[in-house]
Model the fold of this input.
Amino acid sequence: MPTPPENRELSPYTGWTRAHWEDTADRLLAAVRPYASPGGALVDLPGARPSWSGPRSDGLEGYARTFLLAALRAAHGDDPHHHLDRYATGLAAGTARPGGDGPDDWPLLPGTRQAIVESASVALALRLTRRRLWDHLDDAVRARVADWLLPALDPSPVDNNWWLFGLTVAGFLQDAGIETDRAAATIDRSLDRIESWYLGDGWYSDGDNRAFDHYNSWALHFYPVLHAHLAGDRALLDRYGPRLRAQLDDHVHLFDANGAPVPYGRSLTYRFAAAAAPWLGALTGHTPLTPGATRRLASGTLRHFLDRGATDARGLLTLGWHGPYDPVIQPYSGPGSPYWASKGFLGLLLPADHPAWTAPEEPLPAERADTVRPFGPTGLLVQTTAADGLVRLHNHGSNHVGGDDDPGYARYAYSTRTGPTTVPDPADNHFALLRADGTATARGPATPLGTGPDQALSAHRPLPGVRVHSGTLAHGRAEVRAHLVLGAPEGTPVRQTGWAVPADGDGPVSQLHPVHGYAPEAAELPTGATLQGPGPTRTPALHGTTSGPAALFVALASLTGEPGPAPVAALADVRVTDAHTVVVTWLNGTTARMSLEAPDSEDQ
Done:
């Protein structure tokens, strides 16, 4: 298939038009066809290992997630490669003997939890194509598909965004006139459950654990708002649409001028699913983005990954970020998992004459002005610079971490062009106490201590009886990183690390400068590959030791894509005014203050 020509008049930033999205969808769908089972019910993609749910579940995942892409591709009746015919055949074959061990048999939802996830994609695809596909199926096939879907209406077995899979199945069954009372009850129950996680300003926690990441946009807003839109439920849309708009007001700041979203959290292998919510805002009218900015964001993200090797020589999406990268793979991820990137094609629901397709592209916030912006109640602080279009995200509130720090959640900072490093390498953007054997303490769950227009603060307990209060103060490309260590034994070694960048210098410049409490010379720790590319990388580090019951450590850090940047020490004058306070005068003469003093309610 010839590639559509670029249109730099309509799309001066990316060159891409709707034709490129349709072409990409067709190529992705064509690439998976050789891996379909005889009846087309399973798509068994090649991979080094199955997910923890097993190969049959993985085959269903490959079918369901590519079926969603086919449904979006054919949303306006244009299906020149007959994608929907193949998926209709698969529906009949997969539900003929569900739970069996034949080459096309789907796993049953009871007993295969992952099948509940995939049932949502099947149901959404059927809902989007109901008049073109579902209404033309044999009655017996429709009955079998409905029977397979119905267990998804039970309460969710996982207490997080999984509640929305039942919502999505219920929405389709309600439209199709199947078990409508039960479906309505599922919708109400699911929406009631996620309501307790809504913290305001467009942000949900993904469960009870203050987990903030891209699931806010591609799940917690995606499913309720899209359901309300497809159901024509004005009351629901009036409730959830403004929340989506508020989320997008923050979400748009997470995209680099090069199209990359900030890689933080889990399930990063879904890649350009990060574009789903901006498209949904355009679809429903609940967006702060102009049509041209919406397409610039979405096309920039799609191109970012495709131009950097997200598909292999066979045209298959790989498990990774740019190319394959094992450390971003969760145990629940199988070879078909990356195809939840299909959500990023939601813009194909918009007709070709919609302004999001016809308006000239406009620049992203990261390209227009320097920004420092807290994200509502999350404890996250975004920092962007227009000179290089680079985005940094400082984390003082997301704590979806277990016994060992999850690199996707526990770092103090993330960016669109660096890390995070993974074991056995030292953690980048980390502050730790060092044990006698030289090993570093984990950060663990972070308790947010508040944000301001230019700063965010948090606390954690790295060891019994020891508490660390941390803060980031940002301006331009400069960051003040401060940590107040309370209750540590006298002379405890500490280490602050900075941004991990390619050791050959072919990438952004990472700087780390001691201000207070550290030894005067910065070290460089050898580190390896990150999701950005192969190693070696280098991570700057500062070392110090505690003195007294309250020891303050302050550093200046910088990450920039500008060539030959001035030393970060030249960007700010930082003064320590007492045991827990720093006052900064930036290069432009403005001043800022940050205090790490414990609130009265905090146990020190």
